Every structure is written in C-alpha cells, then in structure tokens.
C-alpha cells in the first residue's frame, strides 16, 4: 500500500502545472494522518536550498511577503479542490501576484512553482515527491536554479484527501 501511495504521489508530482515567470520590478489531515503545514514548508524550503547549494548556487532567503502571496494561492487551490471535489492545480492569478511582488515588495522579477501531493502522510515523503518532481521538470528546475535570491513558500491541505497544495514564489531585487 505504501508503494501504491508513493506511485500515486509521484505521478501527481509529475503532473505539476507548468512554471510561470514574469519580469517585473496548525495541523492538517492527509489520508488519515496528521502533517504540520509549517513543518512541510520548512522541509520543502530546505530541500530547494539543498538543490541550489549542491550546484554551487547561493541559498535563497525566505521572504515573508512572498510567503503571504504564496499562501493566498495555495489557499485558493485547496478551496477550489474542496468545492469541486477534484485536484485543482493552476497558476491562476500569477500576473496579479507578480504585480503585488513588484509594486509592494520591490521584486523586479518573479517566478512561481506550484505542486500537489495526494496519498502520502509523512512530511519527508511529501517533500521528496514534490522536490523530485520539480527537479525533473525543466521549467520548475529552471526557477529553482535561476538567479533569484528570495523565495516564499506556502502549503495548504484540501479536505477529504484532495491533496496538499504548495506554491513557491521566487523574487529578485537586482537587474
């Protein structure tokens, strides 16, 4: 059964929505188990930085502003999954988030990775599934390894096992 859940999660991770780039200035229940959203956010952020460091790139700094923008989007995806009863992954509203990042937070260039994982209960398995999926996707990998210095990340879980939704936003302040 663990193998089946891992395969389902890996397949979902591979179905991650395409990356979007724009140049511009508690606890949750997952398939009967409990996962801390904050712990998963920290683990995902750490793993993304490990990917960067392993390639000689600097670690990303965590941005509270980008965290909040990412949280709004993860909340929307989870709410849509709750109301529709289906996996609901998208970049809807990215242009607006990028505009806020530029105008209110001072980031001249932004990008976004989104992902969903369903069927896994442990933070480490979910984080592995999502980061491996991102690194196996050319566009997502490009965002992770690009010349960004700041990132925010947010996790929200839909009800009834409809998935753990993740949004990671990247920002750059220099040209």
TrEMBL record:
Q: Does the keyword Signal apply?
A: yes
From the UniProt annotation, give the residues forming the signal peptide.
1-23
Q: What are the record keywords, sorted?
A: Signal
Top-rank taxon of the source lineage equals: Bacteria
**CDD domains for this protein:** CAP_bacterial
**What InterPro entries is this protein classified in?**
CAP_dom, CAP_sf
The residue ranges of the SCP domain are: 46-170
Q: Name one Pfam family in it.
A: CAP
Q: What is this protein called?
A: SCP domain-containing protein
Q: Which organism is it from?
A: Rubritalea halochordaticola
Species lineage, top-down?
Answer: Bacteria, Pseudomonadati, Verrucomicrobiota, Verrucomicrobiia, Verrucomicrobiales
């Amino acid at each position: 059964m663990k193998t089946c859940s891992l395969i389902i999660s890996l397949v979902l991770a591979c179905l991650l929505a395409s990356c979007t780039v724009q140049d511009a200035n508690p606890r949750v229940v997952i398939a009967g188990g409990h996962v801390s959203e904050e712990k998963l956010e920290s683990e995902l952020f750490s793993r993304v930085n490990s990917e960067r460091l392993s390639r000689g790139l600097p670690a990303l700094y965590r941005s509270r502003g980008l965290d909040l923008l990412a949280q709004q989007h993860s909340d929307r995806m989870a709410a849509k999954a709750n109301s529709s009863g289906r996996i609901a992954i998208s970049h809807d509203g990215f242009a607006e988030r990028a505009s806020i990042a530029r105008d209110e937070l001072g980031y001249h260039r932004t990008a976004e990775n989104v992902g969903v994982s369903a069927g896994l209960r442990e933070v480490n398995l979910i984080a592995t599934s999502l980061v491996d999926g991102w690194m196996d996707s050319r566009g997502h990998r490009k965002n992770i390894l690009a010349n960004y210095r700041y990132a925010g990340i947010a996790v929200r879980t839909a009800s009834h096992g409809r998935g753990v939704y993740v949004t990671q936003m990247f920002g750059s302040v220099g040209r």
